[in-house]
Automatic annotation (TrEMBL):
One of its GO terms (biological process) is L-arginine deiminase pathway. PANTHER family: ARGININE DEIMINASE. This is Arginine deiminase. GO terms for molecular function: arginine deiminase activity.
């Protein structure tokens, strides 16, 4: 097929001798005539410096019996569509032959497992692994006390070992790939036991060899996969690397999640790691802390507005075609894109080896251009046809599976890249293409197999002689190196904010449409689309935004309201030497979990003074003046399964244990119930001791250092803690009592030149006290009634531009629509601009205004 002069249809065809078949002796489905090429480990560096370097060794896994099992129910196997397995096998074989024709050594998982097993030590490794993959269980109707000694022997590990010992290598491989469980009961005749059910937990996604590990400039690092049905793949690949004698540098621990499709090496100076749907920052942080990446800088590409399965990994939306060209989905590019990606850049200190945040929240396509990349844009249809998921094998060659994308690349790059087309349309029905299906564990750097380390003073961005652009010369604002500057005078409104995207704000709910996973996904994406618009408006008004996300394991569904658990105060506001961070004692465990290490370390670290009130959660009316470093040293730690260790500030919550058929549920249920009871008791004890003060129950006049605090109702603050807060910050405290069982911030809002007040929320005298203070401080007071307050008309946010010369008022459309024309005119007279944002889906799912979605950084 010659549809463009520099796009090459691979001349590889399947020969008649290639034979994929089912062997009727043991039911195995595998390729019978793979050639085995030994790897001379001393000749290769098992690392990747740059995605554009020449691919030397590639690991694949051909579709086989496990994928046939997956094709029986594609949706449940994480496949995109039903598929013809025979066609998928043919396409995959063609891909392998193309790689070999281009000079790559290709090893499949089956090759690795079946080769060298004449070595007894390797045979033992294989047997031991297969032993763990095969299970015998009693059928549900069979009681254990009805079994005789011989019956029990036939269910024992010793009997299973004897079966494993008798198996051929090919049988062992099928056990490993399909992971069978056999349920048995007593037989009435013939044999002691009768198999009543054969079930399997096949590695249906092992064909996608990209994800179980990443190969960095330092070497191979094992990943941690998001889907539970894929997690056993990591252990299998560790076995494969052991059989190949390839070193593994490390492994991502829980709750870290990392999949190889989210990683691109781009020279010794830079690598890209996507975080979002499948990978998280916990994993990236682990890689940086343990120096497993080998690059001067790490670009963390944040997908916090999209989280779409179609764009699950970084390699589904972009690809490095050569040293200076990035293929990228056009729809994710630009500040106006609702599904844009943002980059946080971390730079390694050459003396300490520590990575620290150097720039944050740079729009991805802008960041790429600043770093010397020319962009070639793929359309939405190109992306859906896996055009972005090609494979760069170096030497100016790029394997593509979508002809339309290939034409786009060819027209943009003329003859600088040789495009090799392979038909992969059936394999892609399993939700991935040639990049997903391959793991390059060794690339040849230019001129030599093993590249010498480069001087830190001359770290190239791309790979070779091109130098990094000077970060100081980058475009103004969020693109510039991260540098914090304190306010010179006290101000009421912030021009910097910290935000947590509502990535898991919407969750399944019994008795509603949200019981359906598809509805949850669609609703979540609509909420994120609204949130992306809020973020876009803030950026357009000159507000610097530092964006984080939250994840299910953190158990913080309301994390989007980040302004609940901290406040910040400039040195000018407090008349102090240092800018100050205040950490509040919170009323629930869920809110306390929102005080996360990565937010404090990477979003609030420039506050050199910390007032820590969290001891009040244990009934100690104490304020501790401390530092960020001390806070990070004492913050509770997450356990391996994402649960807090006992002995921390928070009650331990243990994961539920699946019930084993052999145990009838009694033992495990008892353990789970006992643990739940202990957790509930710990929670109740903590709640009885807790003395809390949450920031939404304080309303500040920062310029005059006056704070209003609510002491009544369900949202009441503890008076002693409020007094302690005021003393610690040298604020005048005005104590009031809200009558409506709402937080104070739902009744009063104080802006730069105006205030919004619902007098009906207070007794007459208290309402007048608040009103008089607002008038005397020069504010224009807009009064709202109780009905308007219930519709969140006081839940506003006012922000300033970079130099505090202009203010913008942000409201939801729902809030604005409940104000009168006169009230709107009064607001318009006191701010430079009012922006109303449609956040109806967010509000329908529990969102209440904008106020505490922004954590002001003063």
């Amino acid at each position: 097929m010659n549809f463009n002069s520099n796009i090459h249809q691979s001349p590889v065809h399947l020969s008649n001798s290639v034979n994929y078949s089912i062997n009727h002796n043991n039911g195995q489905l595998y390729h019978l005539d793979q050639k085995d090429t030994e790897i001379n480990n001393s000749s290769y560096s098992f690392s990747q410096i740059h995605e554009n370097d020449e691919a030397a060794i590639v690991i694949l896994n051909e579709p086989s019996l496990a994928q046939w099992m997956g094709s029986i129910h594609p949706n449940g196997s994480l496949y995109e569509e039903p598929l013809d397995l025979s066609k998928a096998q043919d396409e995959h074989q063609q891909f392998r032959r193309l790689l070999e024709k281009e000079g790559c050594i290709v090893k499949t998982v089956r090759d690795i497992l079946t080769s060298g097993t004449g070595d007894i030590a390797k045979r033992v490794l294989l047997e031991d692994f297969a032993f763990k993959c095969m299970k015998y269980e009693l059928a549900a109707e069979q009681r254990l006390d009805e079994l005789g000694l011989k019956d029990k022997e036939l269910l024992s590990d010793e009997y299973k070992k004897s079966c494993i010992d008798s198996m051929s290598v090919e049988q062992l491989v099928e056990v490993i790939l399909t992971r069978p469980t056999i349920k048995l009961r007593k037989s009435e005749r013939d044999t002691e036991l009768l198999a009543t059910e054969y079930s399997f937990h096949p590695l249906v996604n092992l064909v996608f060899q990209r994800d179980q590990q990443i190969t960095t400039a330092k070497g191979i690092v094992m990943a941690s996969l998001s889907s539970p049905i894929r997690s056993p793949e990591v252990e299998l690949m560790k076995l494969c690397f052991k059989l190949l004698d390839l070193p593994v540098l490390g492994e991502i621990p829980a709750p870290g999640k990392l999949e190889g499709g989210d990683f691109y090496p781009s020279g010794r100076g830079l690598c890209f790691i996507g975080v979002g749907l499948r990978s998280n920052f916990h994993a990236v942080d682990y890689l940086m802390r343990n120096d497993l990446l080998g690059t001067t800088r790490v670009a963390v590409v944040k997908d916090y507005f999209d989280l779409n399965q179609q764009r699950m990994h970084l390699d589904t939306v972009c690809n490095i075609i050569n040293e200076r060209v990035m293929l990228i989905l056009e729809d994710i590019c630009g500040e106006q894109s609702p599904i844009r990606r943002l980059v946080d850049e971390y730079t390694r200190d050459p003396h300490t080896g520590v990575y620290t945040l150097s720039r944050h929240d740079i729009e991805y396509s802008r960041y790429l251009r600043e770093n010397g990349y020319e962009l070639v844009f793929a359309t939405d249809q190109n992306q859906k046809d896996y055009g972005c998921n090609g494979l760069n094998i170096g030497k100016g060659k790029f394997i593509v599976v979508d002809q339309a994308t290939a034409k786009t690349i060819a027209r943009a790059l003329k003859s600088t890249v040789k495009l090799l087309y392979v038909d992969f349309r059936t394999v892609t029905k399993m939700y991935g293409s040639v990049h997903c299906c391959s793991q390059v564990v060794s690339r040849r750097t230019p001129q030599t197999f093993i590249s010498p380390p480069l001087s830190v003073a001359h770290t190239p961005n791309l790979h070779g002689t091109q130098q990094l652009p000077n970060p100081e010369a980058a475009v103004h604002h969020v693109s510039q190196p991260y540098k914090y500057t304190s306010n010179i005078v006290p101000v009421q409104t912030a021009n910097r904010v910290l935000m947590v995207a509502p990535t898991y704000f919407v969750n399944a709910k019994i008795g509603s449409d949200l019981i359906n996973a598809s509805v949850v996904r669609e609703t979540r994406q609509r909420v994120l689309e609204e949130y992306a618009l809020l973020h876009q408006h803030l950026r357009s008004q000159g507000v610097e935004v530092h964006l984080f996300c939250h994840e299910p394991y953190q158990k913080t569904p309301s994390a989007v309201f980040v302004g609940q658990w901290f406040s910040t105060h400039s040195a000018a506001e407090l008349g102090a030497k240092h800018d100050t961070l205040v950490l509040y004692p919170l009323s629930t465990i869920e809110k306390q979990r929102q005080r996360r290490r990565e937010i404090i370390e990477h979003g609030l670290s420039h506050y050199t003074r910390v007032i820590d009130l969290t001891a009040c959660e244990q009934g100690q009316i104490t304020a501790r003046e401390t530092t960020i470093a001390d806070i990070l040293a004492t913050i509770p730690t997450l356990g391996e399964n994402g649960y807090y260790y006992s002995g921390s500030t928070y009650p331990e919550i243990a994961p539920s244990t699946p019930t084993s058929p052999q145990q009838g549920g009694n033992s495990n249920n008892h353990t789970t119930n006992a643990t739940s009871a202990a957790a509930a008791a710990a929670t109740a004890t903590a709640n009885s001791l807790s003395k809390h003060l949450e920031f939404p129950n304080l309303v500040l006049d920062r310029v005059n250092k006056v704070a209003f605090v609510n002491l009544s109702g369900e949202k009441a603050s503890n008076e002693s803690v409020a007094d302690l807060w005021a003393m610690s910050l040298d604020y005048k405290l005005v104590k009031v009592n809200v009558k409506t069982n709402t937080s104070l911030s739902q009744s009063v809002f104080i802006g730069h030149k105006f205030a919004v007040l619902c007098k009906e929320a207070f007794d007459v005298d208290e309402a007048q006290t608040i009103y008089d203070h607002l008038i005397n401080s020069g504010k224009r007071v807009i009064l709202v009634n109780a009905s308007q307050m219930s519709k969140h008309c006081t839940m506003l946010s006012e922000v300033s531009n970079t130099d505090h010369t202009k203010t913008t008022l942000l409201m939801t459309e729902g809030s604005l629509s409940n104000l009168s024309d006169t009230q709107i005119e009064e607001l318009e007279s006191t701010v430079d601009k009012i922006i109303n944002i449609n956040m109806s889906v967010f509000e329908e799912n529990g969102g209440k205004g904008i106020t505490y979605m922004l954590g002001g950084l003063f």
